[in-house]
Specification:
With about 180 residues, the protein is mostly helical. It has eleven helices and no strands. Helix 2 packs antiparallel against helix 11, helix 6 runs parallel beside helix 9 and helix 8 runs antiparallel to helix 11.
């Protein structure tokens, strides 16, 4: 009860939902995106190891930074690479931008898992950690599931995917500012 009455919890959720929502939209609509950019599907597929390397590296580095500074200190920054990745994908058409996008989204994904995992006990303690994590996970899964449907509806109604991804970049930067509080 205390958690759902805490207004800061909702500011954190605004950011916590973003990686799953945005990542699922992009990867669900990847064939459409690849066709818009004139890239081959093989090119896009070949960039996934780049994302994996940066996700693992970012998770390991984030863990060290959390131990040094705290999860709350790092919270406002974990969405910045995702915002940058969205800008690259929204406006970049050269083939190399695909690899830059994957590196940047990997940075966010690795930091996201590590920072949010450490954040809940740091902010709310460990007494109800299971209930807190269950609620957060349910919200994040719901947001992830909603993403492709909403995006598909927008595409069908004339809002191009690159424009949606550009708006997602703005969302990431705004959520980072909100999480600074």
């Amino acid at each position: 009860r205390e958690l759902v009455r805490d207004r800061y919890f909702y500011l954190i959720l605004i950011g916590a939902m973003a990686p799953g929502f945005i990542g699922t939209v992009i990867f669900f609509h990847q064939i459409h995106l690849v066709e818009l950019r004139g890239w081959s599907q093989q090119l896009f597929a070949s960039s996934f190891p780049m994302m994996a390397v940066f996700t693992v590296s970012s998770a390991l580095i984030s863990g060290q930074l959390i131990d040094r500074f705290s999860a709350t200190a790092l919270l406002p920054f974990f969405l910045l690479p995702l915002g940058g990745a969205c800008l690259v994908l929204a406006f970049g058409e050269a083939q190399w931008t695909n690899f830059l996008f994957m590196a940047m989204i990997g940075l966010c994904f690795g930091a996201n898992n590590t920072i949010l995992g450490a954040l809940w006990p740091e902010v709310y303690g460990t007494a109800h950690l299971g209930a807190i994590r269950a609620l957060v996970l349910a919200v994040m899964v719901f947001a992830t599931a909603m993403g492709p449907g909403i995006s598909g509806y927008l595409i069908d109604n004339g809002i191009p995917l690159p424009r949606q991804i550009g708006v997602a970049a703005v969302y990431c930067f705004a959520a980072s500012l909100l999480m600074a509080f």
